[in-house]
Amino acid sequence: AQSVTQLDSQVPVFEEAPVELRCNYSSSVSVYLFWYVQYPNQGLQLLLKYLSGSTLVESINGFEAEFNKSQTSFHLRKPSVHISDTAEYFCAVTDTDKLIFGTGTRLQVFP
Amino acid sequence: GAVVSQHPSWVICKSGTSVKIECRSLDFQATTMFWYRQFPKQSLMLMATSNEGSKATYEQGVEKDKFLINHASLTLSTLTVTSAHPEDSSFYICSARDWQGLSDSPLHFGNGTRLTVT
Asked: For the segment B94-104, what is each residue's pLDDT rounded down to a tens digit?
């Protein structure tokens, strides 16, 4: 069965600084990978996804993630964060028909 | 984009009572819906897979008699927490996949239901 590891439970960062949220998954077989964001008291929203093709995927709000098959990673990056990026970020991977989530990373952006 | 409506957004109930949570896909048909539970500061744990017109598939360790799931139509799945106890207090989130979606389609999530059992 698939598993997802998000090594950092919390990432504090100052506004306009770059950030990387790490995600590793367990299996090297074909997978689909997702990043979801959860703002306070809200449900999950899809941030970006990798299905196939280009290993670098981007979101509309400046985040990007790179699928690295050899390292079984799908790290999320943003070159310059905003206060409004403060949220919980979940990496997820498909396991047959199910979606398996990591434990989440709390991104806290300080002014 | 696709919208999943979950109701209620929060509920407080007394121990021993039952609570029903609804999950509706508003602009697409969902043959499969998923119910997750999220503990404070933890990830989402899949509880069960709800299939329209058939019995739900529960994950290991989830009591099917306690968490009753009904998926009576292509747009509605319900989760009933029966005889609720304080340890059932949690954040419950439903999600749905468009009926045309394959496993590469992202799930659409409801905004969740905060259940507090007193």
From this structure: 998 775 655 55
